[in-house]
Amino acid sequence: MLSSGLRRDHAQVRARRYSSLPRRRTSGWRAAGTVFILVAAFFVQTILFPMLGIEAVAPDFVMAAVAAIALVRGIVPATLHGAAGGILQDSFSGGLLGLNGFSKTLVAFGISRIREDPLVGPSLGVTASSLLILAGALADAVFLWGLRLLTGSPPVPAGRWVAFGLGLPFTVAAGVVIFRASTRTERSGRGSPGSGARNTHEQR
Question: What is the pLDDT of residue 54?
């Protein structure tokens, strides 16, 4: 009886140990995926979209990616990706380093904090996610405007504000697409490790 209890305890320890491996692997893939999304958004914004020659429209695909990541991941990953995306923009903007980094960190924190509120609910539709992404893009613009005033940076020309406004639909659309794709990936990633672990335990 004692030996059977020891064997049962040993089996449970082994089950917990092996069941944690898929979760760690999935977490690593999720982190790599969000980093890839951020870099891809930056590449589209700085390389691909300017090749179209549409100077009157200025969507912020990095903001779209940051907002989408904030809707899917937790507060800590969201703020880290917000800071990273903003610093990427700062490094190629020629302006004061840290403005976009600080602004997008605040926006990512705010969106993820709202997303975790129980009143929001477990799932977001297209309308709710669009509104949150739009609010994030507008908040980012307001933060950058205020930071420029505080730091004495040159004001944004009026034409840039018009281009920003015309680019908002593209920013929101890109954010919704990234959010929906990330949500599906997140759900499938959560489902497969658990089911695989359960099947492994049942076989043992």
Answer: 83
Q: What is the dihedral of CA 33, 19, 187, 85, to 10 degrees?
A: -30
3-state SS assignment for residue 56: coil
Q: What is the DSSP letter of 58?
A: -
Cβ atoms < 10 Å from Cβ of 137: 23
Q: For residue 39, what are the CA distances in angstroms to 84, 86, 91, 118, 139? A: 10, 11, 13, 31, 22
pTM of the model as a whole = 0.77
Sign of CA dihedral 96, 98, 103, 104: positive
Could you give the CA distance from residue 179 to residue 198 in angstroms, rounded to a whole number? 29
Residue 135 pLDDT? 96
Pairwise CA distance, residues 63 & 77, whole Å: 15
Positions in the chain whose pLDDT score sits under 70? 1-28, 188-204
The H or E element containing residue 168 is: helix 158-203
Helical segments of 94-157, H only: 99-115, 126-151
CA end-to-end span of the chain, whole Å? 20
Structure-token match 């449970």, residue found:
12
